[in-house]
Amino acid sequence: MRCLIRARGRGLPPDLHEDILQEVLLAIHLKRQSWAPGSPVRPWLYAVARHKIVDAFRRRGRRVHLPIEDVAEILASDADPAPLAAHDADRMLGMIDARSAALVRAVRLEGHSTEEAAQGMALTAGAARVALHRAMKRLSELAERMK
């Protein structure tokens, strides 16, 4: 059984082979009633093992492991915003009323709290939250239509 797991699980780390063997033995124990007594045992055992090997590959997925040291310099640098993001935001905000646009700009783009934006616009905090929600919903609808 180990030879089969080693041969079929070549793409897996060798330390997983013992885990797969344990899973195979457990599956054989749990599913022993599915073996037909008159049929040969080896094909049934190999089928169980093949399925467990495939399960191990699926669990592992297609992950690529890269050492963090190779990309540390890139990660440390500040990411530049998308070059057209500000232009797109201004264009979208130009499609809604001025008060809603100012509220979205203050809260979502500049990072102010809803209460701070409400004070600057002579609104209550509740009214500002409702207006912000409606403005975001309107922007979402406009973006959907533009797709």
TrEMBL record:
GO terms (BP aspect): DNA-templated transcription initiation
One Pfam family in the UniProt entry: Sigma70_r2
DNA-binding as UniProt keyword: yes
GO MF, any single term: DNA binding
Domain of life: Bacteria
RNA polymerase sigma-70 region domain boundaries: 15-63
Keyword Disulfide bond: no
PANTHER family linked: ECF RNA POLYMERASE SIGMA FACTOR SIGD, RNA POLYMERASE ECF-TYPE SIGMA FACTO
NCBIfam families with a match to the protein in the record: sigma70-ECF
Family, as annotated: Belongs to the sigma-70 factor family. ECF subfamily.
Protein's recorded name: Sigma-70 family RNA polymerase sigma factor
Organism this protein belongs to: Paracoccus liaowanqingii
